[in-house]
């Protein structure tokens, strides 16, 4: 059921992006980008299936007494517990992926596109998928008897993630109407939606890649001071800063197994650390894989 809903929503949002001209961006409609995005989706599902199979035996072998231990817990309670734990772990994984050079190399493929749409929502390096908490939690939760709650949580996460990455700004359309503004103003206090996440991907006046790390819930950014104030606006641009190397598609997905020496030649000018004054006055700050903080101004 969850799979049908997720694929149905993906198809609907894909049609929405197509019908509203989101694929007019030459990069979004290029064969190279479409191939990377589709392959990344296949990799994500493959890693999920691999971990389900690989962990089944050791879990049953070493935790026989825990089989079905959570089967009698209310589904609604387990939904909340699983969502909170998974999302908090995701917050820290995502935050570290922007602050640690090695993890940034694995997460960078998600930020190289100069567009957003539903196809690139799950785009990551193949090794990054092995770090995603949900893929490790799912086999354990199924064994413990919380399979229904975990399926609902991960299905919910899939729906929200696709809504976040849709290129068409459906949130700005809703904000044309009073009821829509009231709805979003309340929902966005809890759940990460388009404006919050587009700012994380954005460059320019309203973008702020070094904030808004939350996957589903906004509370973690609020608690840890990494929230960028919401400004319901279209982003000026998406992607990585000019001058940052962008590797070929296969290298993006399979580094360090594959390497692209030519990527270093694409760096037009050396990236230098912005001064403290520049960072303080910046509209956005980009942290590179090498840990260099670059101020972005209007």
UniProtKB/TrEMBL annotation:
It is found in: Membrane. Keywords: Membrane, Transmembrane, Transmembrane helix. This is Fatty acid hydroxylase domain-containing protein. GO terms for cellular component: membrane. PANTHER family: STEROL DESATURASE. The chain crosses the membrane at residues 45-63, 75-93, 127-154. Residues 79-226 form the Fatty acid hydroxylase domain. It comes from Paraburkholderia caffeinitolerans. It comes from the Bacteria. One of its GO terms (biological process) is lipid biosynthetic process. Its main location: membrane. GO terms for molecular function: iron ion binding; oxidoreductase activity. InterPro entries: Fatty_acid_hydroxylase, Sterol_Desaturase_Related.
């Amino acid at each position: 059921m969850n799979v049908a809903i997720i694929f149905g929503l993906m198809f609907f949002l894909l049609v929405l992006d197509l019908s509203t001209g989101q694929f007019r961006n030459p990069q979004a409609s290029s064969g190279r980008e479409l191939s990377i995005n589709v392959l990344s989706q296949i990799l994500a599902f493959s890693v999920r299936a691999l971990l389900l199979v690989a962990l089944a035996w050791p879990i049953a072998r070493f935790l026989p007494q825990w089989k079905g231990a959570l089967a009698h817990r209310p589904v609604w309670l387990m939904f909340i517990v699983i969502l909170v734990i998974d999302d908090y772990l995701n917050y820290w994984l995502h935050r570290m992926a922007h602050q640690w050079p090695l993890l940034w190399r694995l997460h960078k493929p998600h930020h190289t596109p100069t567009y957003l749409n539903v196809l690139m929502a799950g785009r990551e390096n193949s090794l990054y998928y092995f770090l995603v908490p949900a893929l490790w939690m799912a086999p354990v939760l199924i064994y413990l008897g919380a399979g229904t709650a975990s399926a609902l949580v991960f299905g919910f996460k899939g729906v929200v993630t696709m809504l976040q990455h849709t290129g068409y700004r459906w949130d700005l359309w809703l904000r044309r109407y009073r009821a829509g503004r009231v709805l979003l103003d309340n929902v966005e206090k809890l759940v990460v939606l388009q404006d919050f996440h587009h700012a994380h991907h954005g460059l320019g006046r309203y973008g702020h890649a070094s904030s808004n790390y939350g996957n589903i819930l906004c509370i973690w950014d609020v608690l840890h001071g990494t929230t960028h104030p919401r400004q319901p606006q279209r982003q000026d641009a998406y992607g990585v800063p000019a001058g940052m190397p962008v590797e070929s598609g296969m290298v993006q997905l399979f580094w360090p197994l594959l390497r692209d020496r030519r990527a270093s030649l694409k760096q037009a000018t050396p990236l230098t650390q912005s001064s403290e004054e520049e960072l303080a006055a910046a509209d956005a700050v980009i942290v590179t894989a090498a840990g260099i903080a670059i101020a972005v101004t209007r």
